[in-house]
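Quick one before lunch.
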Amino acid sequence: MAAGIADAGRLLRSGETTASALLEEALDTASRTEAQLHAFLTIDSGGAREAAARADADFADGVDLGPLHGIPVALKDNMCTRGVETTAGSQILAGYVPPYDATVVERLRHGGAVIVGKTNLDEFAMGSSTENSAYGPTYNPWDLSRVPGGSSGGSAAAVAAGSALLGLGSDTGGSIRQPASLCGVVGMKPTYGTVSRYGLIAFASSLDQIGPFTRTVEDSALALSTIWGHDPMDSTSHAGEYPDPTAALGRGIDGLTVGMVTELSGEGFEPAVEAATGDMLARLEKAGVGVVEVSLPSFEIALSAYYLIAPAEASSNLARFDGIRYGLRVEGQTTEELMARTRAEGFGPEVIRRILLGTYSLSAGYYDAFYGQAQRVRAAIQEDFARAYDQVDVLVSPTSPTVAFEAGARTSDPLAMYLSDICNIPANLAGHPAISVPIGLDDSGLPIGFQVMAPPLGEQMMYQVAAEVERQAAFVIAPTAVEMAR
Amino acid sequence: MTWEAVIGIEVHVELMTASKMFCGCEVAHGGEPNTRVCPTCLGLPGALPVTNRAAIESIMAIGLALSCQVSPRSVFHRKNYFYADLPKNYQISQFDVPVCHDGHLDIEVDGAIRRVGIERAHMEEDTGKSIHVGLGGRIHSAERTLLDFNRSGVPLVEVVSRPDLRSAAESRVYAQELRSVIAELGVSDVRLEEGSIRFDANVSIRPEGSDALGTKVEVKNMNSFRSLERAVAHEVERQTALLESGGSVVQETRHWDEESGVTHSMRVKEGSSDYRYFTEPDLVPLVMSPEWVAGVGARLPELPAERRARYVSQGLAPSTAWVLSGLDPSLRVVYDDAVLSGASPQAAANWVTGEVVAWLRRSGADAAGTALDGESLAELIQMVEDGSVSSSAAKELLDGVMSGEGGPRGVAERRDLLQVSDAGALNGVIDSVLAENPRAVGEFRSGEEKVVGFLVGQVMKATGGKADPRLVNQLLREKMTG
Ligand SMILES: [Zn+2]
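Model of the zinc ion complex:
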């Protein structure tokens, strides 16, 4: 098994391995672990083998399509793939085969990537444990009784297990970083607008952002450099410069200042998580970094604002699933009845809960008090971030207040589940980049993640710091359940 | 009590841009259902909208033509409601920051100019079409509903007037004038029968002299200017009867039934906030720079009101200017070119609004394809004025030109329409007529002026109608008095 994308790229180009060999290894891992993990909803071994053969032919012809050429990739099943079923983890899209590729999928194909399959997720990316999937939960490769986090739990678990060297997820309120933390891999949410949302089945349009799961920080930067870029099909796509995310990787971080967010500690944070975070800060300080505590008071109300904005947008985004044109249809006497029955049967309870919440917060007489007020909180968060970045280069915190929790532990307590993303949501509300890097294990052998946040388009510096964190942690990805399956 | 009607008109105009509002699909009428569709206008999962710049230029042109302010920054909103032919179950529209606001349109009613306020013009996307098949063709009795999304996402401009109209006739004139302005801009084909322009009326009544607004009823489904006028008149009558009998008007939407000439209640009007409007997060705000607005303004064509003012300044009567301004553009070009070629505006206007239009009506020909050009019309007018043809022969001459037989001079020669205007050629005929009618000559000399007419007639008869009667008259007098 190659250690990651950069390593595999070297082996591919030196002729020590082939894309087909990498793929077979990934498929073999999947076949041995899927029964327990359930990371994938669809494995497209046929399509993947063709792509791998093409990549090998390319290499033989001296054609080099870049860092993802020949790399096995797992896609969260809310990204449209032409000709391959795409369900968003929902019954309402059972059997739905998109007639087009998402822009990010197109970019992967142009970059010669080998798409292994589509991974499990909380239905419409609504959740923090991948237990809200209509197709059954995904489990954590480090402990099969625990959740992988979510909503992109399938991609996180697939990369941790080695069924793919790259996983793509989407992060609306932590849905990449939190599962990365819980599965002990690197997960990154780019600046809003830098990775096209065209073809991503929308949850909350103003927050959704696609990003990579990888085994190393360098791999994350390499993947980002392929998937991001301006897309005329997405009006919110960033039209300016895209600074090379890999440029500052080897630079060291002597002289930089890191701000530890005081609001992201204390009550609700597990002692092991706080200890690992403190230990990492001490190491960074020793490596020449200035470490200061920074207060961003608006973070206290970020979660509440998020749970008004995201459901409001979702209530509208999910209105199109009505049984009329595609997906599930439950017949009725009238069009209204057909739509109502289809939606009642097609959506799971968490999705229905959020649609109701969102519908309510946009309703007559409540708009200002709820949605309007939440937008003002969003502006306050942006101001707090801007003030903080006047003093420090990057902000850091734990990625998740806890390690992976027991499956089923929070399914009946939505508020406890919502708190899983408390560290992640501010970066979504502000549209800033953030990454989770694994830094250690707790006493039960469960991974702990460390979050680095940076100003908009500050990916270079974010990766620069993340690479140092990775070096200091010297974390080894060796999930127990997968090792047992080998 | 005397009641006053308070009427506002909402007009939806489908733009004729090359592609749809938020995707690259073609905008056209007809064709096989669901052939001009893509992931975006079908509302497929993951598809996103991208604003069509040409549509924004079109709405800016409409706004400028209606003397509106163009907002420097404008925002799209989602209007959320479930309907089978609305693929996303929300319509991308605008709410509190429309592209254009606060304009006006002047209309002429019974010779007086009325200024009608324009509240706003905003941009939105059209829906698909539901086709109910089987049984009654109405939604509740249909066996099946078929959906055609070719129209889905076609750019739509909604122009909302202020409640400044006071009668059904004013409402019709406003609608007609607005349509002619939009036609002039060339941004829509404004075909009522195709639904590319649609009118809804908001009607209320109040005691005359009151400033308060009564309960408003929205009337829909008028498919001609006549039905708009009838529907508004009916609604005013209905509300008056209701209030006078002690009842009250319910705020609702009513459907005009052309055949029975009455309105039917459709549903109780929902408050606008039930649409759960919120900023469209998939689109960035529109920024209309002063340079962009000025560029669109500079390319605006001459508008009907400006054109009428120009005609009046050329010396035409306002009523003639109105008629001429309403003619097919190709006929107005004939007028303009004739004047440029030296014809008097009055004569050119008389010909174009009179004989030319009558000829086209008789022949059923298309004005745009007419063989008449302004230079020919000017020449024809000149020939009448210098006596080369008589005014009755001129009509035949016009027929020849419009039938494509060639220029006026050639047609006159080939059809033998030229008058004898040469005094020398007429002298012999006149002398013999005088010789044959000594009694008439005597009567003239004793002061019987009227007898000249008889003598002119004799000369005309002798020349087969080709003499210039004015010249004959003049020569006769000279010979009898000289
Ligand atoms: Zn389209």
